[in-house]
Fold each of these.
Amino acid sequence: MTTSGVVPQARFSAQARLRALQSDIMELILERELEAGDPLPTESELSGALGVGRNTLRESLKVLQALGVIEIRHGFGMFVAPSNFDALADGLTFRGRLSLRHQGLEALQLVDVRQALESGLIGSSMDVMSKEQLASIEEAVKQMEDLASAGENFVAADAEFHRRLFEPLNNELLINLMGVFWKVYRKIHVEIGPGNEDLVKTAAMHRSIYAAVAAGDKVSASELLNRHFDGIRRRITEAVED
Amino acid sequence: MTTSGVVPQARFSAQARLRALQSDIMELILERELEAGDPLPTESELSGALGVGRNTLRESLKVLQALGVIEIRHGFGMFVAPSNFDALADGLTFRGRLSLRHQGLEALQLVDVRQALESGLIGSSMDVMSKEQLASIEEAVKQMEDLASAGENFVAADAEFHRRLFEPLNNELLINLMGVFWKVYRKIHVEIGPGNEDLVKTAAMHRSIYAAVAAGDKVSASELLNRHFDGIRRRITEAVED
DNA sequence: GGTTATCGGATGTAGGACGTCCGATGCTCG
DNA sequence: CGAGCATCGGACGTCCTACATCCGATAACC
């Protein structure tokens, strides 16, 4: 037995300790009333203040970075981050691809959630939509149509269309979540291959959604979005059945 | 210059390299067709295979663990994880609390998203709801009423009510997301204090929601849920205005 | 005065040493 | 012979040291 002196609180699982460490760091940020963009103490300082080695601390810091809590800049310092959902996207993408090998369950669930969000919120968004925002939506549609007639893929334009659809709500969390879903879907899209999708038809579908929004017809807009998602769902199902 | 032999790909930001490393690990899982619960190579093996130090590797592994991609068991090994959104909850909770110091913007956005999901999906859930599931919902209501009349708080019962409301959809992703929102809301709830909420009134509100669901009245159910969330939103706004 | 070289500090990476935990093997004892 | 326990080996957890890399700022230089 070499346990001379102080015995560390050994009766806790390592995982719990690491989570506690993360909480401590976040608590420290809140206590010191740091705002987004404010600098955090250096690794050495934190390491000393929290009573853990730099290595252990760094593992927690990396997690916080992945969660979008802090931002780390090499050779400069660490800061409270504004917002970053990229890591979540990676995690979900992984699960989605993993599930594609079975029945694509998680991928379909993802579509369900997205559908609920979009068709559920389109009405509210239309309520506060400005003329400029409406115009920017049509612009995205036009871009899709151009790309479609050229036979090129238009995933980016598609994503932009949906993003602009809900920009008026001014809800960053929602935009971020939808961004995550898009990222995942895009990756899955690559996985299941281009398939036999009809670009022109898809573009036309978006044109009709825009038309309903422009006309202020909430019911139609919601309905069309639902049909849009049915199509996506069908494509995933078909791809899995190979 | 001591760059003898191979020069590491030095022209990339450290952050990009770390993300690449995470992707490599996930790619490795997909390539080897590992399923949830399957063991990963040991840290040493991975460290060697990917050509990075154990320390760097561990930082990526910890992130993947936080994202719910892998599960790490001390002294045993690492495994592909089933599903885990806890870390996401922590990240969102932090942002929510951070935003409470301003105008509670992010907290309100969170409620908006939750509202869209719940009032948007209640109809679909009612379509596939079994009698047993309906009964379990009433059970949750009863529990809330009991606790309310006893003057005790019933956050857990409240969360359970909402969870059971959407259990029929069989959408794990949705349940997880809602679980995250609850976790965040609960933490924020503690932050803004018990306030002057009327427990009995809240319980009654849930009773009426249940009644609408039991009666198969989708429109009323959705409407009541919306009103429920309006109340939550009001409480957050009031708490911030101090 | 503008540009460049240098410096200090902070994060990034690597490797080693030791502690801690877990499951499995093999032993002892009833 | 079987149940319980001690031991063992492997794997993750933590810490330390050393060095590389990067960034911003200061100071030297033209």
Note: Confidence is low (pLDDT under 50) at residues 1-11 of chain A.
Amino acid sequence: MRIGELSQLTGASIRSLRYYEQQGLLKSDRSDSGYREYNLTAVEQVKTIRFYLSLGLTTEEISGFLTCVMKNKEAFCQEILPIYRQKMAELDAQIGLLTGIRANLAERITSILEENEGSDKS
Amino acid sequence: MRIGELSQLTGASIRSLRYYEQQGLLKSDRSDSGYREYNLTAVEQVKTIRFYLSLGLTTEEISGFLTCVMKNKEAFCQEILPIYRQKMAELDAQIGLLTGIRANLAERITSILEENEGSDKS
DNA sequence: ATAAACCCTGACATTAGTGTCAGAGTCAAG
DNA sequence: CTTGACTCTGACACTAATGTCAGGGTTTAT
């Protein structure tokens, strides 16, 4: 199939499919005229890529284990666990940061509301 | 004082101070030679800017109430509460997203560890 | 008066994936 | 053979604050 069909079957934009290829995540044959040609396994592969992207992994990280997970169960791929753990650490750091900011913000909102008590015309 | 001194007194880089000015958050007089000249109140102002930035507000949002909070108590500035609330909503959305991803990731890690039980050579 | 330290503007880079456009070639159906 | 739909590459845009560099002027201390 050509790239338009693959795009429709996977939900990935044509632009994204070309980008995945550029990042080494997706291979394509070329027709005589230079059109990309995909076989059916590409559909699964793209869905897999998009799933890992949705977990917050980067294309570079995904490229480290994609070939393995396309052939085996995830648990078989040793490369994946350290990446998961690192991503967890990043997530925890980010969530912690945002949660701290949130608490700060909540406190300021409360403080403003309290200060405006009694002088609130509405 | 000139920009280098303001930078040292506030912890903001010279680049950032120029950026704040470009965004309309900071004003400066100019000497005959074109050097920026600041008075002492600039120190407080820059610290205030940096504080709001650390709360996750953008320079554009800050510009909406900075003049007011430099002159009054925060609670007096009506512009600030809706911005705080919107930022809270954004934070909650972002935290929720990351938390969901984190749960997904944690589940996958657990699943991998379970699948590798008993066949784990280490 | 000269060197070192300071300041100026303008510009490009950074992140990471995606949107979008231009200009050109290809394919399919009529 | 023509038209419309498809595809190609390459490039710029985006977010937002900051780093950094180049090329040039200024101030200060010696």
Note: The beta strands of chain A are 29-30, 36-37.
